[in-house]
């Protein structure tokens, strides 16, 4: 390797020594409760497939049919020649599902934050953001050139302090919070944050990537959970988790969404989502609107698994959602624990999470529960976790 890249070798070695070097496994099958990973069939406790829709026959059939009609790619950005009838139909359906006037469908949840934030605020404005907000929110804030003021995690009093100290100095203000925090599984106090913003005339925005399909009536999300439908100014979502497909959504009033259509760079300068993905998303909305069985099964599985983990002596943090962080602490131990889970017979696919995704000393194994897990799957997982936890001293 050229000397000019020798620093990469040094930094990579440092990551390895700290237990922070990411090992990327390769998937050899469709996403489901059991998957082939690195050539081995394992119990999947790793993906965000909350409702088991990623390999659902109705979604697959919708995607196949769409390819026959629309082809494999739109070959254009949405604003020039890439907006299909399917895109507009999905936007209308998602807006109705969320109880708002309009919605914009973009390439991913990450793109949704990069599209929405710089469209709403810029130089001379201020953003109030939760300390543990997702990386896509952090990057969207940076792109906006607005002043960024961080308040302590889910701390409404600290948020109010930050607002009072800064509000009068800026043109516009935007508050952004994750709805469900993806590493800890706790939820934002959205009702209290909304009341605070209403008092001070602040634009409100929530990223509900891990709340859609999970919280609210029939999986309508955290805004519905707090009965704030149509009141929160911007609701960001993803179609890649509970919906099982791909894409992001920005939902809100027709005035705000039309403005974002005019200004959002991911919408204006990156090709539209494929017809196959869009049709599969529509099929997912159909399933969610038809009944609540999948959401109820997800929560039943969540309660069962969490009770079993607590009973075994594991620390699973403050999660109130299907996200189940198994707190380990040391990053190297978390990596070893994950490796032992995978190498067991049968193996469990559950990846370690360490710094900088979570703070130093807060490494964990993040378990993601799905409606597609059977009771036998959950019992097997509990047994293997308990055996390995005892063997490495994480539990007694």
Word description of this protein:
The structure is a single chain. The chain has 15 helices and 13 strands. It is 44% helix and 16% strand. The chain starts with 5 loop residues before the first helix and ends in a 5-residue tail after the last helix. The strands form 3 sheets. Strands 3-9-8-7-6-4-5 form a 7-stranded mixed β-sheet, with helices on both faces. A 3-stranded mixed β-sheet has the order 1-2-11. The chain has helices at residues 6-17, 57-70, 78-82, 85-98, 109-120, 135-144, 156-166, 190-200, 222-225, 254-263, 265-269, 275-290, 293-312, 331-343, 375-391, and strands at 34-37, 40-44, 102-106, 126-130, 147-151, 173-178, 203-207, 234-238, 248-252, 323-329, 347-349, 352-353, 363-368. With 396 residues, it is an alpha/beta fold. The protein is globular. It has 2 domains: 25-50 and 292-391, Aspartate Aminotransferase, domain 1; 57-290, 3-Layer(aba) Sandwich (Aspartate Aminotransferase, domain 2). Helix 13 (293-312) packs parallel to helix 15 (375-391). A hairpin with a 2-residue loop joins strand 1 (34-37) and strand 2 (40-44).
């Amino acid at each position: 390797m050229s000397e000019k890249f020798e620093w990469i070798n040094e930094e990579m070695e440092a990551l390895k020594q700290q237990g922070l070097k990411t090992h990327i496994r390769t998937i050899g099958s469709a996403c489901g409760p059991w998957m082939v990973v690195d050539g081995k069939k394992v119990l999947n406790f790793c993906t965000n497939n909350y409702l088991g829709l990623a390999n659902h026959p109705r979604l697959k059939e919708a995607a196949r049919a769409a390819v026959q009609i629309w082809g494999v790619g739109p070959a254009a950005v949405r604003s020039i020649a890439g907006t299909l009838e399917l895109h507009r139909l999905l936007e209308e359906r998602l807006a109705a599902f969320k109880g708002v006037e309009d919605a914009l469908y973009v390439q991913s949840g990450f793109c949704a934050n990069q599209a929405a934030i710089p469209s709403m605020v810029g130089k001379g404005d201020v953003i109030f953001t939760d300390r543990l907000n997702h990386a896509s929110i952090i990057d969207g804030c940076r792109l906006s050139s607005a002043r960024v003021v961080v308040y302590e995690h889910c701390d409404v009093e600290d948020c109010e302090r930050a607002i009072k100290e800064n509000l009068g100095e800026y043109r516009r203000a935007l508050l952004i919070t994750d709805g469900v925090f993806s590493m800890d599984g706790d939820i934002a106090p959205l009702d209290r944050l909304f009341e605070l913003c209403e008092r001070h005339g602040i634009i409100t925005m929530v990223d509900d990537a891990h709340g859609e399909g999970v919280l609210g009536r029939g999986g309508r999300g955290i805004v519905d959970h707090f009965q704030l439908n149509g009141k929160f100014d911007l609701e960001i979502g993803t179609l890649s988790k509970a919906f099982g497909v791909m894409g992001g959504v920005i939902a809100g009033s027709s005035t705000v969404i039309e403005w974002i259509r005019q200004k959002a760079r991911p919408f204006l300068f990156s090709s539209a989502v494929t017809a196959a993905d869009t049709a599969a998303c529509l099929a997912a909305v159909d399933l969610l609107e038809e009944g609540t069985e999948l959401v109820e099964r997800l929560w039943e599985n969540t309660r069962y698994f969490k009770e079993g983990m607590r009973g075994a002596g594991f620390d699973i943090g403050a999660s109130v959602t299907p996200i189940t962080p198994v707190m380990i602490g040391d990053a190297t131990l978390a990596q070893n624990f994950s490796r032992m889970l995978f190498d067991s017979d049968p193996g469990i696919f559950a990846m370690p999470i360490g710094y900088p995704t979570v703070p130093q000393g807060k490494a964990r194994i993040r378990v993601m529960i799905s409606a597609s897990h059977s009771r036998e799957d959950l019992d097997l997982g509990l047994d293997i976790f308990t055996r390995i936890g005892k063997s490495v001293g994480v539990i007694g």
